Amino acid sequence: MKPTATSRLGAWIAILLGSGYFLLPLIATFEFSLKMKREGYSFEAYKVVLSDPGFQASFGYSALLALLTILAGILLVVPTAFWIQLKLPRLRPLIEFITLLPLVIPAIVLVFGYLRLYGSGGWLPFTGSERGTDVLLVFGYVTLALPYLYRSVDTGLSAIDVRSLTEAAQSLGSGWFDILRLVIFPNLKTAILSGAFLTFAIVIGEFTLASLLARPAFGPYLQLIGANRAYEPAALAIIAFLVTWAAMGLMQVFSRNRAALGADEH
């Protein structure tokens, strides 16, 4: 059934309204960030922000924690999702439910639970040192990213014949570690990268965990600048937006490249 002219017009109106809803505030924020100098538009606010040692330190800190979170999340999620699909398929609904809990439980509840269990008076006092608090923050970020990382990996595993690949590798004498390293991980590159970019975007913009654990992350820095400056917060908002969408764009690029390679193989 071909769409009518009326339905096409309605679709375009909906697209334009949706685009305006998202783009107009962004354009207004960008335009405001260029007004730091009275004589006209300039990128002075961006220059001030990018040259600020606080920006460089906080962004570098969050980027490092994002990489550690991605590494820890991959080492946790890939073997778990692989084992669930291969040996324990009946537990898959339960695991999916557990990985969805971070979307239901607020981050502030999560961090207060961490402080209760792992505070200086807890049985495992992570917050007794800066490095211990950093480790605890990485664990918190892994929890927040779990719904996205697990689903990316689980979707990737569903797209390949895990059982046949595993049996073929075992017939050649490979152990479980070699199967994961040489068979499963190479076939999950796109899924892992998709989850990694989502995780990076989540960690860069996260505020609650880093603030309540008193760590110098990018999220608290954004809040601090927003409370004390005028034009720099708008510039920071645009920068954070660009970083997030760059991660999303890279995810789409890798996904399309993977699909194109798969089509060429067939």
TrEMBL record:
Keyword set, alphabetical order: Cell inner membrane, Cell membrane, Membrane, Transmembrane, Transmembrane helix, Transport
Subcellular localization, as worded in the UniProt entry: Cell inner membrane; Cell membrane
Keyword Cell membrane: yes
Transmembrane segments: 9-28, 59-82, 94-115, 135-153, 191-214, 234-254
Pfam families reported for this sequence: BPD_transp_1
Gene3D superfamilies from the UniProt entry: MetI-like
Domain ABC transmembrane type-1: residue ranges: 59-251
Protein's membrane topology: Multi-pass membrane protein
InterPro entries the record matches: MetI-like, MetI-like_sf
Chief localization: membrane
Family: Belongs to the binding-protein-dependent transport system permease family.
UniProt name for this protein: ABC transporter permease subunit
